[in-house]
Amino acid sequence: MTFPKPFYRWRPHPWHGLDVGPQPPSLVHAYIEITPFDLVKYELDKRTGYLRVDRPARTSSLPPSLYGFIPRTYCGQAVGALRDAHVRGDQDPLDICVVTERPINRAEVILNAKVIGGLPMLDHGEADDKILAVLSNDNLWSDIQDVSELPVAYVDRLRHYFSTYKQLPGERANIEIGDVYGRERAEAVVRASIEDYESEFGG
Fold it and tell me: Which residue, 8, 45, 127, 139, is most buried by CB atoms nearer than 10 A?
């Protein structure tokens, strides 16, 4: 029997075992951890590669889009330096939000995402940018080239979600979100995260 190439005898680790994408930094893979239907925040367990329950949602706010990360990326010195020489990345894979027309209601899927922009976020002083993308073959959104073409209300929902998703009633979240940036800047962040991954884990 002839096996396809590449053939994985065991399931590849979603962070380290999958490719960054077909044409990075513009067309990347997104590994989805949570969907707009999830009332629980799931997060990749970095050791095993399986999804772990991080926490039930603390408020009624739900993610407006698919949410996950780009494989073989890491937010370290190069990502932080795009913000400020004294800022470092959050030492996680680079987060990505993917806009789709049709509801995708399950996580642990891989998809091709076209990068269109990003939200510059600081979480406890560390760079935690959220790359914004569209499903590359989406019937409604695939022609979008830049975040400026997304409805303003949609971007506002994303900003609100990330500014409040860790907040408890009566407390103030230690999160700062700047102005949304376009495709060119987003692609620079993706490139920096690939550089950080290679520095941290090797090519």
Answer: 127
**Domains of the chain: total:** 1
Q: Read off the CATH number of the domain in which 75 is found.
A: 3.90.80.10
Q: How much is the mean pLDDT over the chain?
A: 92
Burial class of residue 44 (count of CB atoms within 10 Å of its CB; 0-12, 13-18, 19+): buried
Which residue spans within the chain are E strands per DSSP? 27-34, 40-44, 51-56, 66-69, 95-99, 110-119, 121-123, 126-127, 130-135, 175-177, 181-182
Reported as a single tens digit per residue, the pLDDT across 20-79 is: 999 999 999 999 999 999 989 899 999 999 999 988 887 778 899 999 999 999 999 999
3 lies in some domain: no
Is the pLDDT assigned to residue 1 strictly greater than 60? no
- The pairing of beta strand 130-135 with beta strand 95-99: parallel
Residue 87 located in a structural domain:
yes
Q: Is residue 83 a part of any domain in this protein? A: yes
Contacts of 95 (CB under 8 A, 6+ apart): 67, 68, 69, 128, 129, 130, 131
Alpha helices by DSSP H, listed for the chain, are: 77-81, 152-164, 183-201
Q: How many other CB atoms sit within 10 Å of the CB of residue 91? A: 15
pTM of the model: 0.94
Both structure tokens of 13 = 């680790």
Residue 149 in 3-state DSSP? Answer: helix
Domain of residue 32: give its range: 27-201
Question: Do residues 155 and 173 make contact, with C-beta atoms less than 8 angstroms apart?
Answer: no
